[in-house]
From TrEMBL:
EC number, as in UniProt: 1.1.1.22
Binding site for NAD(+): D30, K35, T86, T121, E159, K270, R335
Keyword entries, A-Z: NAD, Oxidoreductase
List of residues binding substrate: F156, L157, K158, E159, K211, F256, I257, Y258, P259, G260, G264, K328
GO terms assigned for molecular function: NAD binding; UDP-glucose 6-dehydrogenase activity
Name of the protein this chain belongs to: UDP-glucose 6-dehydrogenase
Active site: C267
GO biological process: polysaccharide biosynthetic process; UDP-glucuronate biosynthetic process
Pathway as given in its UniProt record: Nucleotide-sugar biosynthesis; UDP-alpha-D-glucuronate biosynthesis; UDP-alpha-D-glucuronate from UDP-alpha-D-glucose: step 1/1
Catalytic reactions of this protein: UDP-alpha-D-glucose + 2 NAD(+) + H2O = UDP-alpha-D-glucuronate + 2 NADH + 3 H(+)
Xref: Pfam families: UDPG_MGDP_dh (PF00984), UDPG_MGDP_dh_C (PF03720), UDPG_MGDP_dh_N (PF03721)
Family named by the database record: Belongs to the UDP-glucose/GDP-mannose dehydrogenase family.
């Protein structure tokens, strides 16, 4: 099939590449000329395992086309994905200006029936607004007779596993009341729907809410566990034992119940806030979601609490080695990362940071360019040199079995503040190191 994707950001590029890899022809449209030029040269703007190879291969095979020309994009496919960003407004609600601008562009150039697919995470009711925008633009352009469908087809990609998630989806949600659009979407996703039927067709608004409900449920699990970890700490229990104990119940399960220094990324914080706003706008107070957000915001300061408890005279002039800048492993993304809250709090208190991350060094450089109290170090060992203490913010595989002897030798104060519970307290303490982790006794 011929498909157009507007917005070659994270979601758009992964979706386009995976569709092309399955044999579809995909035209990628973005207003950012430098990004499109770079993609044509094989330069991928994000770090995502497996993505560069399929982009290159399918571009060379002619199944992926990159352009900044919207007219070319609209002419290309009957299926038109909208995958542009929906950044949070000042009040936390999703900003739809880019989505609506693409809707207008499609209407301006369309000459035949189009199926417009909302892929971006958009509030309930957006498909209706997209349809209104298209209709109004068609009327203005004397093209009122042209027909179109708007479909909600949310993505469920995890950063770091996006290509795989896209190739092997748990479910494919199609929100539409048009049988023509449903059939086209079924054909599009047929290569990813083998062995068992993963397609769930529903009305548009339910599809839009499904996306938020999924992310908010996952964020709720994490904040719930973080709240339990705070209780465990105060009650003399070990949250890691509690986690295993409750995860064994299949109704609860082991996924997304890892306590830590808070969730980050471009999705959970934004989507929880956006749903709270949506609820407000219809006069409903989303009490659970507000608490999920509040617990997470507080959790990002947990490590700072431990540090203040340990360094009773303050940390002015102290240097902290910090392992893990990305909001989670296998990505270079630092959006809403706990590391940022922790580093910024340390700087505020007059401390220095020696940071290392296996992938996010360039991103840290971009965000904190010229920052006086930050040194970006080439290895995790280098970060320890001249440091007073060690902080861990991200559970990279490479941090799981460090040489504790070296840590002990390098640090001026033998202490690890671990925001991801990577080690057994007994093991660390055996090396003469103090160990503060989340929801356990230290
Ligand atoms: C999340 C969802 O998992 C995807 O299903 C969804 O498609 C995506 O948002 C999106 O809306 O686009 P992502 O933000 O890439 O994906 O990251 P996750 O793997 O979900 O991790 C989010 C955060 O939660 C990380 O900071 C992670 O460290 C934290 N986390 C996760 C915990 O603190 N504990 C856990 O048990 C699991």
């Amino acid at each position: 099939m011929k498909v157009t994707v507007f917005g070659i950001g994270y979601v758009g590029l992964v979706q386009a590449a995976v569709l092309a890899d399955a044999g579809h022809s995909v035209c990628c449209v973005d207003i950012d000329e430098s990004k499109i030029d770079a993609l044509k040269q094989g330069v991928i703007p994000i770090f995502e395992p497996g993505l560069a190879a399929i982009v290159k291969e399918n571009y060379q095979a002619g199944r992926l086309v990159f352009t900044t020309d919207p007219e070319q994009g609209v002419d290309f496919g009957e299926l038109q994905f909208i995958a542009v960003g929906t950044p949070p407004d000042e009040d936390g609600s999703a900003d739809l200006q880019y989505v609506l601008a693409v809707a207008e562009t499609i209407a301006l150039h369309m000459k035949s029936h189009k199926i417009i697919i909302d892929k971006s995470t958009v509030p309930v009711g957006t498909a209706d607004r997209v349809a209104e925008k298209i209709k109004a633009t068609l009327i203005q352009g004397n093209k009122a007779a042209l027909e179109f469908d708007v479909v909600s087809n949310p993505e469920f990609l995890k950063e770091g596993a996006a290509v795989n998630d896209c190739k092997k989806p748990d479910r494919i949600i199609i929100g539409t009341d048009s049988s023509h659009a449903e059939n086209a979407m079924r054909e599009l996703y047929a290569p990813f729907n083998r062995n068992r039927d993963r397609i769930i067709v529903m009305d548009v608004r339910s599809a839009e809410l499904t996306k938020y409900a999924a992310n908010c449920m996952l964020a709720t699990k994490i904040s719930f566990m973080n709240e339990m970890s705070n209780l465990a700490e105060k009650l003399g229990a070990d949250i890691e034992m509690v986690r295993q104990g409750i995860g064994a119940d299949e109704r609860i399960g082991y996924h997304f119940i890892y306590p830590g220094c808070g969730y980050g990324g471009s999705c959970f914080p934004k989507d929880v806030q956006a749903l709270v706003r949506t609820a407000n706008s219809i006069g409903y107070e989303a009490q659970i979601l507000k608490s999920v957000e509040a617990v997470n915001a507080a959790q990002k300061y947990k490590i700072i609490e431990y540090i203040n408890h340990y360094f009773k005279d303050g940390v002015q002039g102290k240097t902290f080695a910090l392992w893990g800048l990305a909001f989670k492993p296998n990505t270079d993304d630092m959006r809403e990362a706990p590391s940022r809250v922790i580093m910024e709090a340390l700087w505020e208190m007059g401390a220095r940071v020696h940071a290392f991350d296996p992938e996010a060094m360039e991103e840290a450089q971009r965000i904190y360019q010229g920052r006086e109290h930050l040194s970006l170090m080439g290895t995790k060992e280098a970060a320890l040199k001249q440091a007073d203490a060690l902080i861990i913010c991200t559970e990279w595989q490479n941090f799981r079995a460090p040489d504790f002897e070296v840590i002990k030798q390098q640090l001026k104060y033998p202490v690890i503040f671990d925001g991801r519970n990577l080690y057994q307290p007994k093991t660390v303490e055996k090396y003469g190191l103090d160990y503060f982790s989340i929801g356990r006794q230290s």
